[in-house]
Amino acid sequence: MSTDLLKRGQQIKLAVFDVDGVLTDGRLYFLEDGSEFKTFNTLDGQGIKMLMAAGVQTAIISGRKTPVVERRAKNLGIPHLYQGREDKLVVLDELLGQLNLSYEQVAYLGDDLPDLPVIRRVGLGMAVANAASFVREHAHGITQARGGEGAAREFCELILRAQGRLDAANAAYL
């Protein structure tokens, strides 16, 4: 892990996640009745819970709007959920005003072009391993795991490690 990523991770007070391609594998599943379902990785969910337990706030910003994402955010206890919002930087500006935080205190994990303005603006902007190549080129770092396959957990653990809290977060389960 690079010292630059660890340095950037030290100042993080808010971790923000995209959904499709980050918390999921990016596939969209539609049933005959028009309903939609997604699959989420439990490792990612545990990482988000560990991050929140360590005092880092969390948020989801997604361009799509689906009830399953609302349910997942509620199950994990993610307090800030924004769906159906294409301009993610505008949403982040609103949230930073509410929380009285700066861009440097934000970490963002994304995978595609709508995520790029936020990735380029925040203190720690990362892309998942299978993100669009242009997005990977402009991110501060790239996870080893693919979206929906533990990338969010890796992102959470990087922040915890940078803040010297990973060992305590893991030890809570001993």
Give a topology summary.
Blueprint: H1 3-10, E1 14-17, E2 29-30, E3 36-37, H2 42-53, E4 57-62, H3 67-76, E5 80-83, H4 88-99, E6 106-110, H5 116-121, E7 124-127, H6 133-138, E8 141-142, H7 151-162, H8 166-171
Parallel strand pairs: 1-4, 1-6, 4-5, 6-7, 7-8
Antiparallel strand pairs: 2-3
Helix pairs in contact: 1-7, 2-7
Features:
alpha/beta; Rossmann fold; 8 helices; globular
Summarize the structure.
With 174 residues, this protein is of the alpha/beta class. It has helices spanning 3-10, 42-53, 67-76, 88-99, 116-121, 133-138, 151-162, 166-171; strands spanning 14-17, 29-30, 36-37, 57-62, 80-83, 106-110, 124-127, 141-142.
Largest sheet: 6 strands, parallel
CATH architecture label: 3-Layer(aba) Sandwich
Which CATH top level class fits? Alpha Beta
Q: Unreliable segments (pLDDT under 50, ≥5 consecutive)?
A: none
- Note the total helix count: 8
What is the alpha-carbon Rg in Å? 15 Å
Distance between termini? 25 Å
Proportion of beta-strand residues: 15-25%
Tell how many strands the DSSP assignment holds.
Answer: 8
Shape: globular
Q: What is the spatial order of strands in the main beta sheet?
A: 5-4-1-6-7-8
Query: Helical content, roughly?
Result: 40-55%
